[in-house]
Every structure is written in C-alpha cells, then in structure tokens.
Specification:
Length: 532
C-alpha cells in the first residue's frame, strides 16, 4: 500500500510524462443527474493523453461533506471516451492507482490495455484524489524529507531512535503548517464521497471501477456505502480491511523480507551474470555486509544503509526492474561503482519543493482513517519483535509511518466493509504479493460473497494486472465485456489459478547495462513503477 502501484508510472514512462489537467474549472454539480458538460472539459497537458484525444477538467466537491454549502475544492479528472457504438456503451470506469497519494489522472489510458478491445465500451475516467497532483489544493510539507543524510533505519542506539522521532515529529509539524483545514478531510471516506460526486457530475447512475493496491480499499468502502451504485469492479492487490493500517504495515514487513529472500535466490541463480554469490544465503549475507559498511562510509558519499535499502525495496514489489537493481548491486560490489545505485535512488527520490506530495497524502489518509497506537513504547516493542524475524524492511517502514504519532488531525474509525449487497466483482492477487498479502484478498473474497478471486500462483508481483499475463488479463476482458466471472469454489481459496508474471532471464550483458527504471522509493507514491 505504501507504494502506489505499478501502472501510473508505467504509463507516464512509456507514454511520455506526467499528466496535468487543463481547461476551465467545473461548475458545481447541480444534482445527481448533472450533465457531462458540468466538468468543463478541455485539453490535457499530458502529450500521452492528448494523443488519445482525452479531455481534462475539474470536478468541484465540498471540502467537508458535512457542510456541502461551504468551501469547495477541485479534483482533476481526465476522460477517454468509449469508441463502440452508443448502443454498446457500458458506462464510466473510474480508475485509482493506490497509495494512498497516487496520481491517477493518466490512468484514463488503461482501457486500451484490456485485451480484445473490451475496454472500448467504457468512458475511462482518471482522477487525482483530493490533495494530490493536479487537484487543488495540493498537500506538500517538506520535499527534502527523504533525501540523503538520514539516520540509519535500525535504531541500534538511543541517539538514533531520538533522532528519528524528532524528524518524524518535525514532518508532522510541517504538514500542520502547510495543510490547514485540508488535513481534517483526507480520510478514505472523503475520497469515496468524491468518487460519488464524480459519478453524479458525469450523470451516471452507477460507476464501474478499477482499483489497484490502496485503490482496492477505496473500492471496498465505496461498495459498502453505495452498493446500488456499483456496476463492474476490478480490485487488484487487495487491502485486508480487518488490518488497516498499523497491523497491515507489520504484515508487510514480514512479507517483504520473504520476497527479498526470493530475489536473493534469483541473483544466485544468475551468479554467472552478476557475480554476487552462488546461493541465496550467500547473496543475502553480502547484502547485509555491504549495508553495514555503508554506515561508516556511504557510497559516493551519499548512499548510506537507508538509501541502499530503498533501492532494493522495488525488487520486493515487482519482478519488473529486477535486472536493473541487480546490475547496480553488481557494479558496486565488483567495481565499487556507486553511480548506478545513486541514479536509482535519485530517480525515485526527487528532492525539491512539492516532491513529497504522495508521501504527505499517504500519511494524511492513513494517520486519520484509524487511530494508531499513541505510545511509542508499543511501536518500539512491536517493531523490534518483527525486526528479529524480518530485518530487511521493518524499521524503515516504522519510520516511514512514525509521523502518525504526532499527526495534527484527529483520527476517525474505519468503515466496517461488507459486500453482501454488492454485484459480482473480480479480485486479483499473486500469492506472494508483499505490499498487500494474499490473506487480504481471501478476506475481501469472504466479505464479498458474489466475488471471484484470480490468483497468480507463486508470484511476487504487486497489483500487476494488464501487464501481459494472458490468463489474468483475458479474465478481466471477459468480465468487463459480459460480466462473466470464474466459477466460485466453496473453499477459502482462489477461484481461478494462473501462472504468475515471470521472473526475468538476464543475458550475459545485463550486468553492464544501466537502463533507467523507477525504483519505487518511499517518496515514489505518485510515480508507481517501472517499464512494461
């Protein structure tokens, strides 16, 4: 959940740059049947969207839905219209990339990636959630927060722990200064109400929805609150609604540690290419040895143990980019060339004003959706307990979330997710997804009794649908075209089993390449992942 999922950056990278809304601000919705023209559609700034004849604009929504006549904010939206005859039109399809904090404006292009033209019957609607990207206002607090010169993640001394707590408190204070009233209205339920405002503004009785990662939780909550307004819904990389959000992060720590061991075994399999060790255990020891050395002497003067971990974390999310991370690791170990590591870190961690927008929104949502433990002693005990079993990511994840200890907005109560009245929906997950563990998809399947779950058996990729896995993608196409789902089985398991997205097979030249790939660092929440 902390990263956005793969698709948005993928499209930004493949098709040319970030998207931004253009055109006149929308008039406020005049009712549940507001016309399309209320959006004030105009040209998009993104070349990728313009090439596809997309339209962009804004939807006006209340800052506080308890006071709909009060201050309004603007949501940036994009639309790529259906290309089938109007008689075959199946309605609007909203898309959310996850995060929370992910910019989804570019994702109106997603329909063209659905096999067999099954996406052509929908108007695909990308949008930037409140506070994100091209929506207005935008939340950003400190663009340098996850840059260089941070204390080591693992608090092996009281001084390190104190330094991190001070930094986290300072970030929360910076958000208090910059966020104002917006901070009080950034819960999942606010974005769910925004989704319904988009539906009403577009004049649709129902929405279809495609959500990735945290976007699956948005879909779950929308369906719980508005079951009669749900058409077809695809949820890929499912958040466990019983674990939001403190417990979910501890679950991630264990899952990422497991996936890194899988990655280290893959590196060992290609020792002849990367020269990093002949067994997974040997590569893992090498990783931690190099990480420890970087405490005293950072690579290129700036890549310390934190930055080193951040670069590798992408490999726990996706099989995409495995080769590039491997090449950077090999260049450092074998040639003491730090530039590939630095390039990967810099690409994923822009350090400039506004660069922390995704991270700020992530915190604003998760810190206020539900109460986190108020006592640092609870955090300390839990993270040391998990760290002993799963050292790769645990403390990095703890400090990533630590501003919630002092977050300057009151936390609410999570929605009791239920799908008993919801039409048939499609769930997708790979078995070893670390960001949203498979147990979450089973829990969602249980709560949505008319759903069906497709499993990429044994795969480690997070929210990777429409990335070329025919077994998964053809199932999506069938569902979007006709509503057909795999037959639901009686057991607490998946309903259809597919091969996962494959691990890459590097060539002998791979270790010398330095392709640019998005390494999904913690501040990458609105860029999502690498290339297709």
């Amino acid at each position: 959940m902390r990263r956005l999922l793969a698709v948005a950056a993928l499209f930004a990278l493949v098709m040319g740059g970030a998207a931004a809304a253009a055109g006149a601000p929308a008039a406020e919705p005049s009712g549940d049947r507001a016309a399309y023209s209320a959006v004030g559609w105009g040209k998009c700034d993104s070349p990728a969207l313009r090439e596809r004849k997309a339209e962009c604009g804004f939807v006006s929504v209340p800052l506080d839905y308890a006071h709909p006549g009060g201050k309004h904010i603007k949501l940036a939206v994009s639309r790529i219209k259906h290309t089938v005859p109007d008689g075959e039109y199946q309605g609007v399809m909203l898309v959310n990339p996850g995060g929370p904090g992910g910019s989804g404006l570019i994702l109106s292009v997603l329909g063209e990636f659905v096999p067999d033209g099954a996406g052509a019957a929908y108007d695909w609607i990308g949008f930037d959630p409140r506070g994100v990207g091209s929506s207005e206002p935008v939340l950003a607090c400190d663009g340098d927060y996850t840059g260089y010169n941070r204390p080591p993640y693992v608090p092996t001394s009281a001084a390190i722990e104190k330094a991190w707590l001070k930094r986290a408190k300072g970030y929360a204070a910076a958000c208090a200064r910059s966020g104002g009233e917006l901070l009080k209205h950034l819960r999942t339920v606010d974005s769910v109400q925004d989704m319904d405002s988009i539906r009403a503004t577009l004049g649709a009785d129902k929405i279809n929805y495609y959500g990735f990662s945290y976007g699956t939780y948005l879909g779950q909550v929308y369906a719980t609150r508005y079951p009669d307004r749900v058409g077809r819904m695809v949820l890929d990389g499912n958040v466990d609604p019983s674990r939001v959000w403190y417990d979910a992060n501890l679950d991630q720590d264990i899952a990422f540690d497991r996936n890194m061991k899988i990655y280290f075994r893959w590196l060992a399999k290609y020792h002849s290419v990367y020269h990093l060790g002949r067994t997974g255990e040997a590569v893992e020891k090498l990783f931690y040895r190099e990480q420890h050395r970087l405490i005293a002497k950072p690579a290129a003067g700036v890549i310390g143990p934190d930055e080193f971990t951040d670069v590798f974390l992408q490999a726990g999310y996706y099989v995409f980019g495995w080769e590039t991370v491997a090449s950077a690791f090999s260049a450092w170990v074998n040639d003491r060339d730090a530039q590939p590591l630095k390039s990967l870190f810099d690409e994923g961690n822009p350090q400039e004003e506004g660069a922390d927008n995704g991270y700020a929104i992530y915190l604003a949502v998760q810190c206020t959706d539900v109460k986190w433990p108020a006592s640092w002693s609870t955090w300390r005990a839990d993270n040391w307990r998990v760290h002993r079993k799963a050292p790769f990511e645990t403390w990095g994840n703890a400090w990533f979330n630590a501003p919630c200890l002092n977050w300057p907005a009151k936390a609410g109560n999570p929605v009791a997710v239920t799908g008993r009245k919801v039409p048939p929906i499609l769930l997708i997950s790979e078995t070893l997804d670390a960001a949203t563990p498979f147990s979450g998809s089973l829990e969602v399947r249980k709560r949505f009794p008319r759903s069906a779950l497709v499993e990429g058996v044994g795969g480690t990729t997070h929210a990777g649908s429409l990335f070329g896995n025919a077994c998964v993608d053809d199932t999506i196409a069938d569902y979007l075209a006709t509503g057909k789902l795999p037959k639901r089985v009686k057991a607490n398991t998946s309903d259809k089993r597919c091969e996962p997205l494959p691990q890459p097979t590097p060539s002998a030249a791979a270790s010398k390449r330095a392709e640019s790939v998005n390494p999904l660092s913690r501040m990458e929440l609105q860029k999502l992942i690498a290339a297709r």
